[in-house]
Predict the structure.
Amino acid sequence: MFLNTLTPKFYVALTGTSSLISGLILIFEWWYFRKYGTSFIEQVSVSHLRPLLGGGDSSAPTNSTTSNGEADSNRQNVSECKVWRNPLNLFRGAEYNRYTWVTVMQKAWRERNPQARISAAHEALELEDCATAYILLAEEEATTIMEAERLFKQAMKAGETCYRRSHQLQHHSTQYEAQHRRDTNVLVYIKRRLAMCSRKLGRTRELMKEFPLLSMFNIHENLLESLLELQNYADVQAVLAKYDDISLPKSATICYTAALLKARAVSDKFSPEAASRRGLSTAEMNAVEAIHRAVEFNPHVPKYLLEMKSLILPPEHILKRGDSEAIAYAFFHLQHWKRVEGALNLLHCTWEAFRMIPYPLEKGHLFYPYPICTETADRELLPIFHEVSVYPKKELPFFILFTAGLCSFTALLALLTHQFPELMGVFAKAFLSTLFAPLNFIMEKVESILPSSLWHQLTRI
């Protein structure tokens, strides 16, 4: 009787009113999202309704373990974004230019007048035995790694001579002291590049062991990669214990290598289905937390390690926590992750769980909040044909999409009901009849089972 008494005007009013209400909710949700970066309904449900229903607080306490150098770097604005030299950058002549010549591809980076610099280096060598001139020729003019190694060895002889001379005079004045620091930096750089030549030529055991703690060269990153190639995980752990310190700046190499060592202990037997049934063990929890820490530092790396995005030649300079650093890390360390059985599977599962956390990088649990200047700097460092990875992309919350769909649907129903009131009334009655059909069926069964007198008393109540 109720359905038969409803007129088409009622359906027009009903759909129009619901469309208006959903439209107002959509406008409020959009305004709140633009102002606060989250959905109002989602925030209320997570913050207020979930504790009432017995859910725990998923947000972990803030554990600020970042370094002082990292704090200064990440607090800078867009124009002050610090760029670091890639410690594993390829040799310009032997690898970059050779690759360009062979494949006729656009250069991954450009320099102004490289031939002019090479000519100036040759002119400097005609005047004296200059270590930096040999370095420039080894980096840019050498077309093979063996030729680059030969030039670096010549630079080593010249650099050691300058180092011994300045070492004796460093205490005479501040000028000599500055000269000694420069000669030390040059010598360390030469030794590191010689070690890289040995690494690329397969002589992995001819590597440096101890150098001064010069974070500007990131020598420990070269050492970590070489030790991983040797599968000397004990020495890798020893290097991490020395450099993965709260007072030292972090990098993707440090964070992801630490995660790899933790994952190596459990990845061969890890199963997502078994872990969901029995829960994570202590070792698995440590591995997952280490991967979470690495992903929070640089969220671009997993796509390259999981080969969801193609790699390119690493740039000469990188931006910490940026896409350029992720490319540089994955280019040299992908093989080390593949060598550890199940490590990539554990990384994939943990990364997918990390992506489900709302705005994980903006909370700054383990590091300072993710800087917003990385995309602009990476576009300048990386070639134009590479699609720069941007994370996190602020996608519209589910409730805004749901409200928009509901508003559009009800508006369409209101329009159709206004144009075809009788036909839409028939459809509405048929829909409601179908919706209440299971309830009517149950009521009929109850009436047939219960005695008529009892059912009469229940209906009166």
